[in-house]
Please model this.
Amino acid sequence: MQQWNASNIYGVTSSFINAQPVASRFNYQITDFSSNGFASWSNLSNGCNVELGGGLRYSPWSANSAGVLPTVKISDLVNSGNTETVALNSANCTNPPNVVLSLANGFSHSKYIISSGTCGLREALNFVGPLGPPVLITKEFYDQGCTAATITSVTAAQGYGAGNAIHDLTNDSWYNLKPTTLTAMAAPTLGTLNSSTTGGTVAAGTYRVAQTCVDALGGETLIAADAPVTTTTATSTISAGPPTGCNSAAGYRLYITGAGGGTGTENLYAPAAAGCTQNLQIPSVAACALTSSSTVTAIVSGTAVVPAQSTAHASIAFQPYQGTLPPPQFQTSYGPFTALGAISTTALAAGEVQLPAGVLNTQGKKIRVCGTFNITEVATGVPVLAATLAPNFGVSPVTLATFTMAAPGAVTTNEAFCVTGTTAATGTSGTIEAHGYNSQLTAVQTDGNNAASSAIDLTKQLTLAVTILSNTANATSGTLRDLSVEFVN
Model:
């Protein structure tokens, strides 16, 4: 087995440029004219490895960090119409030079070439892992028969995360993971719950447990229907299997109440507190891997509450990116959030965005948040829109800007807003200097800020929330129709 041979066209080409892998150099080829069993060889002296140069080698048939195998192209040399790109079920490389592939081929093949189903792209992404450098696309990638559609066919569900990026050198374009649908991912089904009488410090009592799915961009579903689990000693533990129904998700988060707590009062358990394996495919939030169960040995409090809005998407794939480089490692553009019911004097979260840890922890870092909120007011209602930040969603949020509008009357109207925040102080007691505007009908209001925000720990992962309340009288309904987050520098 060897790299795709194109030396007569390109001369000697490197597998890496400035430590960034070249996708087409991770393509490989095996030409088989034998009558042995299909995709079964006894002469691959290097087993399942391909030399990359510089002493590096890789196995193109290895699963990535999410346990997903790449696809394989079978080029039929007898009937080109039978050429197909298929799933790789398994690769037996335990006894080189004897190698056997199990492929989901739809045709029989007697003379054929085996190669990467994506001209080396998924193999290169697998090689760098979820937080590696960008993978480069060169002219060779297209000459091998792949297209831009090959790039956009690579999805988060195949095991790739927001930390992955693709740079097409032929036209200097970038690709990163983005939602391909506005359809929200459904809440999952809660995993199997159990308790043990030893091994922890969980007191005797009844606790309610809930889980969410988390997509590769850090978007999170609403909680699954929660359920109780009872402990009987002061040294108990609580365990939960991973949820089911997290289609296209990368991980999950665990929420548990205090003893005797009610439905919806659960607090977040980060992977360390949940006793699960963290999925590094999701750089913006800490989440458990979908293959990992959780075992809680101690009850925590004061962490994030359950999500108020679903921000996870049913489908995410690599899409062209235009903006400040490198591409961000989280979702920056949102379509309509879930509509709110009656809006009272208690602030409701109309939209939520997860920001990676430390993303604002640089002096002078500037973030701009803009959106449109549609609200149906009653005659005397006074809508109040705000943007907040919190290390733990729903727990002591810091207000960046608030806009209190004049009573618009009994109308349905759009409020368009933009808030720009600049990091004024960094660290665990960081502050944000935030200013902006809100427009409604013919009225425009600016913020009333004359100082930086209250202190907030900018070293932590943060939740940006847009909230709405209605003074004097309840609004009938409201929806955050769109929201965008942009880093200006």
Q: What stands out?
A: The mean pLDDT is 90. The helical segments are 7-10, 121-128, 139-143, 148-152, 271-274. The CA atoms of residues 427 and 458 lie 6 Å apart. Residues 193-296 form one domain.
